[in-house]
């Protein structure tokens, strides 16, 4: 909205040209952050009260009765606040003509709705096990992945330069346009996109188990991809750092900025002891957004570093839960998802969250360090 | 044409086992004898329209069939079954023309080769059934369920759809079980009416035209006269006659146990036995050959010969006067009297009514059909229900009849054998029960009359009436009035209480739900086993049917799925089954390796870690120390899985060291655990060691961990010290100095915090003061 306004004012010329600065990505980014943050701080207490009265109370699965605590009854589905504030902020500061922005928004909204259905089912069924089945969640995630894959692969719709639309980014490797290699997947790209969407969105869903954990650990990787988006969309930067040029990708920074603001605002209330949980509404949509950011910036393999924490949580969960608990009938780790394992060993919840955040930060810094290494 | 309209053509379909075949035969018989004015009934067919179906498949001549009863052709039957099913043997003997339409049991996995094969076979079966339908043109289809009925029912549905409901054959479904089969549940949507034998089944067909009708039984079971039957079989008044019958397929446990019980029965001079082994001849168990093999073992032993049992084995037949066609090859066996035969092994008893009428005692499986038959015949019976069926249906059947005093139950019990946990019928119990019942005629008379009372005599006639009614208002089958049903409601409630197949037990079928229910009744949680300790008598009194729950838990231990076994272990613990501690102990000490794949992924033994760990939790709920438990604990202390070790250590703390008696082996085991790397095990080991170790040794063991970085381990040290002090309370202790010294060095920084929410505490207090009037859940539940 403000972007269009700034454009219109700029066209008037004369002293109106001052408003040009409202069109700068950096200014709009800061604006987007401040907007979501303020929206959160002002309206969250009200929304939390409404969620609570509407019966959105958490049905916690008891991971370890030994710890003897109960979070039952904490208002949940706080993800709607994140989604809502980001949407408002994008509406104000985003460029509505940008395809990248729309792809990310649609991921956030679709996964948010999926999560909300799950949350509502849990509350209705009065049990953490009453939500959507694993299969139906996977199905919708897969369908979204396929749709996104087709959208990005088909020459008519792809926002990428057509010749590199089916390539994937590999850290430490120059693209062909700078004398390196491009890995072309052709139709396999659609499958690859689907895989990334399913894997990444589930990973964030799993990590949402302690107060403030999901929100704080997603901020660093999201910021990494924000920085990448800025570089990829800017000709001077990508020429210097030897990245392929993705015109328009810099608009993603507005989204990233808005989301980081919203997450920080959410942490204000979600920090231990939590007044609100994001629920699957939040964690699934965060996962979806992260997946789409990874794909749109064409830096999929960088996620192994930037999102190493998520991959660790996911891998241990699959081993511990699917193989250990269901198949072998024994624990391979003390508890999964793995953050509960640390709790089981006597670390307090706050300590676990703080340490996970530190790990996420360090991994993000590593990921940024690879920018120049190619 | 006018005559043709008046003739009633009924297609019977269903089969596989006797449970599906016999009800259909009973219904057919009732329809034949039906007093309906409109139709004069006759047995089999000789119709110009379809001469094909007059061909007799039972080895009888066509004249035989037509002359049977000597009536004109007004009711015609056609039985459509599968070639491999029991119907191929049985149906022709009842003068019913039989045709085949292939079908298979539906596999449980959705996407598999067997599913593909199932669909293919079913498709061919439906086409064949369509041909039968078009040629025979039935007025109604009576289906008893089972995969054999699928082709005909689906063919009728297809016919209805493609003729746009112009040719719509009404379908009557009879469901015999409390938990309906998948076939019947699915076919219910094409059915005009469903008759069930069980109150519970009513709910499953909710919203359809369903009624409680009872289990149809051939009238011959009722009307066969005892003296006459005994004369036919050549039995004198003093003779005792026992019928052993494990269902049409055969029951391994019954066959084996009974053969082994024979020597104990041999000192009864007047005892005669007929034993139907069953027709099953699968790779893993061939009912007849296996039983015969066991018998010849006894025969070869001199003791068996001394006992004076005469064995008579008839591989393919039955031994009575009624001896025609089908399996029977033995020609005109005159019966017992003339040969002096005392034990007779056959595959299948075709003339069950005769044998039951003559019998003094029956030993049977608790299938719904068998139970209804012995009730109809009024035979006292020893019932051996098959364990671990879905919904535990046989046990429920047997128990409800036993409550009415009609039968006595012997449960299959799980035992460890070479091949792992298996169900076995105790030979001693079986022999004892048979002998004591044979010695007690008054008890048998009582059981007999109770059995008669438990039987609903009208079921088959009732069904016959409904079927004829349906053919009359063929066009309006969908709108069979609901008032008609409600008018029968009072009648229903009577039949309900009389019907033998209704379990009085209202506990969940599913083992997990059953366990949860028990937990809530007891007011304990499984996870709290080691905090809770022994379940007290007051708690146990809250459980209904304790002996059954214990049996159920033990039975589940032989299940092939470890998750179900796991629930069985929990049931044993929660019901405090002290008599079978050997089972729990065996689970822990069983060292049968898991499959190769499982071991590759990190599994160890056939009994997974959770089962072994939970067996120890169960021992905590039971809290009895004996040689079995001791063995289990010592094995568990050396278990490869850490949770088992830590559970064993927790379990030890529930006993005083006087109780543990010879303690050195256990102390050594615990000591070993304190040296292990695993944090959980180490903590529990330190804690337990404080209770049983020598003071100096305890202090020595704890000393390296005073500054350990893991909170869990330091917690273990503190607990060990505390336990030590408690043990020597009020005594003069020499090691106090050393302890104080250690405590000075002890690191008390902690990363572990227990949250405390004053607001939630206060709220909980308020709710408790209010009583249960608020609908709010407690924040601390």
Task: Break the fold down into its secondary structure elements and pairings.
The complex is a heterodimer of chains A (374) and B (781).
Chain A lengths: L1 H11 L12 H29 L25 H15 L5 H27 L8 H20 L13 E2 L14 E2 L3 H20 L5 H21 L1 H7 L10 H19 L8 H18 L6 H4 L1 H21 L9 H7 L4 H21 L5
Antiparallel strand pairs in A: 1-2
Helix pairs in contact in A: 2-3, 2-9, 3-4, 3-9, 3-10, 4-5, 4-10, 5-6, 6-10, 6-12, 7-8, 7-9, 7-10, 7-14
Chain B lengths: L1 H5 L1 E6 L4 H16 L28 H6 L7 E7 L5 H4 L7 E3 L12 H24 L3 E4 L6 H13 L8 E5 L6 H6 L5 E4 L2 H6 L5 E3 L6 H5 L2 H8 L6 E6 L6 H14 L5 E6 L10 H14 L1 H5 L4 E3 L22 H4 L3 E4 L5 H7 L2 E4 L3 H10 L3 E3 L9 H11 L3 E3 L3 E5 L2 E5 L2 H12 L2 H14 L4 H14 L9 H6 L1 H10 L12 H12 L6 H4 L4 H5 L4 H11 L5 H13 L6 H9 L6 H6 L7 H14 L4 H11 L4 H11 L11 H11 L4 H14 L2 H8 L8 H17 L8 H10 L12 H13 L11
Parallel strand pairs in B: 1-2, 1-4, 2-3, 4-5, 5-6, 6-7, 8-9, 8-12, 9-11, 10-11, 12-13, 13-14
Antiparallel strand pairs in B: 15-16
Helix pairs in contact in B: 2-20, 5-6, 10-15, 11-12, 11-18, 16-19, 23-27, 26-27, 27-30, 28-30, 28-31, 30-32, 31-32, 32-34, 33-34, 34-36, 35-36
